[in-house]
Amino acid sequence: MTTYTGKCHCGQTQWEATLEKEQQGHILCHCNTCKALSGSTSTLNQIIPKKNLKITKGEDGLKVYTYCGDSGKPVDCFYCPNCTSHVYHHQAVMGPDTIILRTALLADGLREFVPQAEIFGKDMLGWEKEVAGERKVFSVMPPS
């Protein structure tokens, strides 16, 4: 396990995330909600136990935006109230102890991690290419 530091754009919120070797990579999400929230074609994420994320600065100030996911259950997006960088999301369908961490905000994650998988491939734009290579691209979510 390796501990990575992360921070939002303005630095008001900072954290440490401890990742197993197999979690040291990006899961690209191409869903339309991620497009709308990020202003991009995908987001860079990893699924981790909630206990592996420690907010070291600004935890009390985090804001939450909640929407209904494709599962029909709530998705809570935790973000910095100043710059609106999303730190992590919690999908109720995944249970109370699992979160989705934004790996692009880890100090070393953006440059060191490679795509491990892509989800919501059905929502990829026609001009997008799969970047996970020989790895997996899933129409929606990988099988449980």
Task: Give the helices and strands, then pairings.
Layout: E1 2-7, E2 14-19, E3 26-29, H1 32-38, E4 43-49, E5 53-57, E6 63-68, E7 74-79, E8 86-91, E9 98-102, H2 109-112, E10 115-119, E11 136-137
Parallel strand pairs: 3-10, 10-11
Antiparallel strand pairs: 1-2, 2-5, 3-4, 4-9, 6-7, 7-8, 8-9
Summarize the structure in words.
There is one protein chain. This protein is mostly beta strands and 144 residues long. It has a single domain (2-59, 94-136), classed as Metal Binding Protein, Guanine Nucleotide Exchange Factor, Chain A, CATH 2.170.150. It has two helices and eleven strands. It has helices at residues 32-38, 109-112; strands spanning 2-7, 14-19, 26-29, 43-49, 53-57, 63-68, 74-79, 86-91, 98-102, 115-119, 136-137. The strands form two sheets. An eight-stranded mixed β-sheet has the order 6-7-8-9-4-3-10-11. The protein has a three-stranded antiparallel β-sheet with strand order 1-2-5, with no helix packed on it. Strand 8 and strand 9 (98-102) form a beta hairpin. The longest helix is centred in the N-terminal third of the chain and has 7 residues, at 32-38. The chain is globular, with a radius of gyration of 14 Å. It starts with a strand and ends in a 7-residue tail after the last strand. The model has no long low-confidence stretch (mean pLDDT 93).
